[in-house]
Design a protein that fits this description.
Keywords: Oxidoreductase. Belongs to the short-chain dehydrogenases/reductases (SDR) family. GO terms for molecular function: oxidoreductase activity. Helix 7 links the parallel strand 5 (about 180-185) and strand 6 (about 225-230). The chain has helices spanning about 1-30, 55-65, 75-90, 110-120, 145-155, 160-175, 195-220, 255-265, 275-285, 290-305; strands spanning about 45-50, 70-75, 95-100, 125-130, 180-185, 225-230, 270. Strands 3-2-1-4-5-6-7 form a 7-stranded parallel sheet, with helices on both faces. By secondary structure, the protein is an alpha/beta fold. It is built from 10 helices and 7 strands.
Length: about 300
């Protein structure tokens, strides 16, 4: 009996070491990489959803600083115009903004997303950043309304799926390389109570990104260019979505997060971004089936019940 226990412990140990090694390899690879942004095409465009604050604004400023023209897609025309003006004053680029409330995509998603595509006709879109997202606010799935479920899917899944579907064929035909950045979440890596629909939506974004990344490798074979697909799994970033957080040691600023995310582009298929979030991602991956993880979930459940 002891021999079997020793064997199982040995296998578990090897598996843990392999997981840590693979995670560290991914981190080191992304840290050492240098992105050649000119490979995506001079004077090309980056389309960014929810670009007026948080990570979306961070992506807009960073990519504009690299010479990309920017398409801003969001719901507030005043903020869109303000960001558009800001980018053109700071960088020698062109901008275009499209007013779209992604909640409205629930009514007729095909019409909604095809209209975005129509409004960018003639633009050489080289980078697509699916940044739009919506949190369910710490509620058990059993008490969520059907409307909340629909809106969560409409905000977290449909933009990633539909916009990727609409722009990917054009990217395949481009002579230069292209990139798709999909904002998933560290919540996609473990089942956290109170974020059931959000975590599941972000799990879709993550797995979808990894699958499209693999498909793109085969589609682009022998073409001399490539399509880089990156799943971003950040932890808590200081954005409007995290203003209510009371526990903030692992919180990172937008500027701290954007640079390591963009540096990972083209070298790996997923990243947590900031080193704090990488450590948290490694921890949750290794402990999600053992006691420390169970204790964390018990605490989360207690806080939800108190509301």
């Amino acid at each position: 009996m002891l021999d079997w226990i020793e064997l199982l412990c040995f296998i578990a140990g090897v598996w843990t070491v392999l997981k840590i090694t693979l995670e560290l390899f991914t981190v080191i690879k992304s840290l050492k990489s240098k992105v050649n942004y000119s490979s995506y095409g001079l004077n090309s465009w980056a389309l960014i959803t929810a670009p007026t604050d948080g990570l979306g604004l961070g992506f807009a400023e960073f990519l504009a600083s690299q010479g990309f023209n920017i398409v801003l897609v969001g719901r507030n025309p005043v903020k869109l115009q303000s960001v558009s003006k800001l980018l053109q004053e700071k960088f020698p680029i062109t901008t275009k903004f499209i007013v779209k409330d992604f909640f409205d995509s629930a009514k007729n998603p095909q019409e909604f997303f095809n209209d975005i595509k129509a409004q960018t006709r003639g633009l050489d879109i080289s980078i697509l950043v699916n940044n739009i997202g919506f949190g369910s606010g710490g509620k058990y799935f059993a008490v969520m309304t059907e409307e909340e479920v629909l809106h969560s899917n409409a905000m977290n899944i449909w933009p990633v799926a539909f916009l990727t579907r609409l722009y990917l064929p054009d990217m395949i035909l481009r002579k230069s390389s292209s990139a798709i950045i999909n904002l998933s979440s560290i919540a996609s890596t473990f089942p956290m109570p109170g974020s059931g629909i959000y975590s599941a939506d972000k799990s879709f974004d993550n797995l979808f990104s990894l699958i499209v990344a693999e498909e793109a490798k085969y589609l682009m074979k022998g073409k001399g260019s490539k399509i880089d697909v990156l799943s971003v799994r950040p932890g808590f970033v200081d954005t409007p979505m995290t203003k209510s957080l009371s526990f903030r040691p692992l919180l990172t600023s937008v500027n701290e997060s954007i640079e390591p995310i963009c540096r990972a582009l083209g070298s790996v298929n997923y990243t947590y971004g900031h080193w704090k979030h990488t450590l948290l991602g490694l921890y949750t991956n290794l402990t999600k089936d053992i006691a420390p993880y169970a204790v964390m979930n018990e605490t989360i459940n207690s806080n939800i019940i108190k509301k």
